[in-house]
Amino acid sequence: MDIHELRITAELAMLDLDEREMKVFEAEVSKTLEYFAQMNAVDVDGLEPTTHVLMEENRAREDRTRDENLSDRLLEEAPERQGRHIVIPNVL
Prior knowledge:
Oligomer: single chain
Strand content: under 5%
Largest sheet: 2 strands, antiparallel
Number of helices: 3
Radius of gyration: 29 Å
Structural class: mainly alpha
Strand order of the largest sheet: 1-2
């Protein structure tokens, strides 16, 4: 990216860069764009999309249902209840 393109980009991004910062960014942005060009050159036809490069298996546990009903146990823990409802202090 040349300095003119960088000035336009910085203006669009609302960045106020001085000359020293422009020179630094010119080099850094150019390196980044070169790296993107290398990535574009890689043939990825036929590759499956992934969310993580090292993920070989699903690490999430299997979903399992339980037959137990926890509502009675939870209601027993409530400090105050009215029938099957938990009484809480007024919020408003």
